[in-house]
Recover the amino acids of this structure.
């Protein structure tokens, strides 16, 4: 088996043994989606662009999974590997330069896919899954967003000096992004200052690129382009910074 | 630089900020040799081996390792080196057998056999975090040897190992030597260096202080041999004779205790004199200098005001 294959297999195996990571990535989006998805009822609401608020949140929360993987799980994981000398051992053992970053990308994407599937499986019997008006845009935006956030996560993990620092910075970026750009109040009820801050955030752009075409509220081409650009830039920088 | 199947380092320099850790270092490890790299803490040993492995980029100097330049050909070089590094770890939840699967390339030896050889056969299903310090050390050694490396670099090889495990590891090193593998051993343990190394390179302040076989280093730097015994009833004639013996440098009395310093030959002459005088003391003690004494002498702190770091051309003993 290739070095990359061996790394991916080991990393997937190790992830299944880390209950805390799994709790955050798998359970946090589901639990918060269940709470907030039930808070505003199911009647179409102008604040939610006349959609069913529960469906609004179901269509928003896949990106929460993506952000949890990218902003919290991966940075902490990578920084802890570097801090403890695991990356040095991989480097010394002759693992190819990019193998670790690519392995993290693959593991991050697989984790995201499984966590998203689980979230939809929980949402379906509770709130129902809203019909996808423009499935192609959604299907393009989700993996692009996942690549962008996984790369941002790999980059944060490479730049931050320790696992504790990665956790602090990751959570500091995750929660405002989550509240302003995906799982919090809809933009229509935000004040103009908050809306100005929320608009350009990467998670806001990704959520728009998924939710808008999903619920038939428009095409969100600008957001999709922004997500695609983020994916390219973040991947290039992450690959350069995270070489063993 | 001539390309050969060992390690050649010329003029290596590495600084971290303003702190120069390795300074104009020259070093050779010939193919098939076990070479020890010794020196006080902070002498630059670990940085030197990290540069040799291509894990750190030198600020200056040229290196040839197994015919590769570690800076530009790290990807080709690293798989040829098996290393056990200071300050490294494996993921906590990775099990021993999984670590073998993760690190084994197509060239790998039978990992199960290696685990058995180093007493880890029963620990295959144990997580890395559950291993003791000595078990982790042995696992790192197994991983270092797993892919049939041509050069093995071991940093603090037997630190934390019990005597039986240590003996086991030494046997494995001797087997590697017989197989023609080149070994660079960073060590503070002079017993280990004396038992395993063909040559020892001693570093201080980022430079080579001296190099040679263990016997050469002892001959050049070990303090004199010492014979001591309690004073016989009428010592004057005996002590006068001892003072004049070949190889004796100094005879001291402290209370009832007599201490004779000199080179190794004087041990035999002093013994013979004691026998001649018919007064061989029950508490006769002899201290023969060893590599540890040589190191202590060699690495003695330099007196204040004198040159702290000899230049590369000022190697003690005139050897490299």
């Amino acid at each position: 088996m290739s070095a990359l294959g061996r790394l991916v297999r080991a990393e997937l195996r190790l992830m299944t043994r880390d209950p805390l990571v799994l709790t955050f990535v798998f359970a946090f989006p589901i639990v918060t989606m269940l709470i907030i998805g039930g808070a505003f009822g199911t009647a179409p609401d102008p604040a939610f662009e006349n959609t069913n608020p529960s469906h609004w949140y179901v269509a928003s929360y896949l990106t929460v999974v993506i952000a949890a993987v990218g902003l919290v799980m991966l940075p902490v994981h990578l920084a802890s590997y570097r801090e403890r000398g695991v990356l040095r051992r991989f480097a010394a053992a002759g693992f190819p330069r990019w193998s670790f970053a690519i392995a993290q990308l693959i593991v991050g994407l697989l984790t995201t896919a499984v966590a998203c599937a689980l979230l939809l499986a929980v949402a379906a019997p509770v709130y129902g899954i809203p019909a996808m008006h423009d499935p192609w845009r959604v299907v393009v935006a989700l993996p692009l967003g996942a690549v962008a956030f996984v790369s941002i996560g790999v980059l944060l993990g490479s730049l931050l000096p320790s696992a504790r620092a990665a956790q602090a910075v990751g959570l500091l970026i995750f929660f405002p992004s989550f509240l302003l750009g995906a799982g919090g109040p809809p933009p229509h009820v935000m004040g103009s200052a908050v809306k100005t801050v929320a608009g350009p955030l990467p998670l806001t752009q990704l959520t728009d690129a998924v939710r808008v075409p999903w619920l038939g509220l428009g095409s969100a081409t600008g957001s999709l382009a922004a997500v695609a650009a983020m994916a390219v830039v973040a991947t290039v920088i992450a690959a350069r910074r995270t070489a063993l | 630089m001539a390309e050969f199947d060992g390690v050649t380092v010329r003029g290596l320099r590495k600084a971290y900020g303003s702190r120069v850790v390795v300074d104009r270092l020259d070093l050779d490890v010939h193919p098939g040799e076990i070479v020890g790299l010794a020196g006080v803490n902070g002498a630059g040993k670990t940085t030197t081996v990290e540069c040799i492995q291509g894990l750190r980029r030198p600020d200056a100097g040229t290196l040839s390792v197994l015919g590769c330049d570690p800076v530009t050909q790290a990807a080709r070089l690293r798989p040829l080196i098996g290393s056990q590094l200071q300050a490294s770890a494996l993921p906590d939840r990775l099990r021993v057998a999984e670590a073998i699967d993760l690190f084994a390339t197509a060239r790998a030896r039978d990992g199960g056999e290696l685990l058995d050889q180093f007493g880890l056969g029963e620990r295959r299903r144990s997580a890395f975090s559950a291993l003791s310090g000595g078990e982790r050390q042995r696992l790192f050694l197994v991983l270092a040897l797993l892919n049939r490396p041509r050069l093995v670099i071991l940093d603090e090889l037997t630190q934390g190992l019990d005597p039986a495990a240590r003996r086991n590891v030494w046997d494995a090193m001797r087997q590697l030597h017989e197989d023609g593998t080149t070994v660079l051993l960073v060590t503070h343990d002079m017993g280990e260096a004396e038992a395993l190394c063909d040559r020892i390179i001693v570093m201080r302040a980022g430079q080579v202080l001296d190099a040679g076989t263990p016997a050469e280093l002892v001959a050049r730097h070990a303090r004199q041999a010492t014979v001591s015994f309690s004073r016989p009833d009428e010592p004057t004639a005996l002590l006068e004779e001892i003072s004049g013996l070949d190889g004796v440098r100094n005879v001291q009395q402290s209370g009832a205790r007599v201490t004779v310093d000199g080179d190794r030959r004087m041990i035999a002459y002093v013994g013979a004199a004691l026998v001649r005088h018919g007064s061989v003391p029950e508490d006769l003690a002899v201290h023969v200098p060893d590599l540890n004494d040589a190191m202590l002498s060699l690495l003695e702190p330099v007196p204040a005001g004198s040159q702290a770091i000899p230049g590369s051309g000022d190697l003690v003993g005139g050897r490299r």
Summary: The radius of gyration of chain A is 18 Å. DSSP finds ten helices and no strands in chain A.
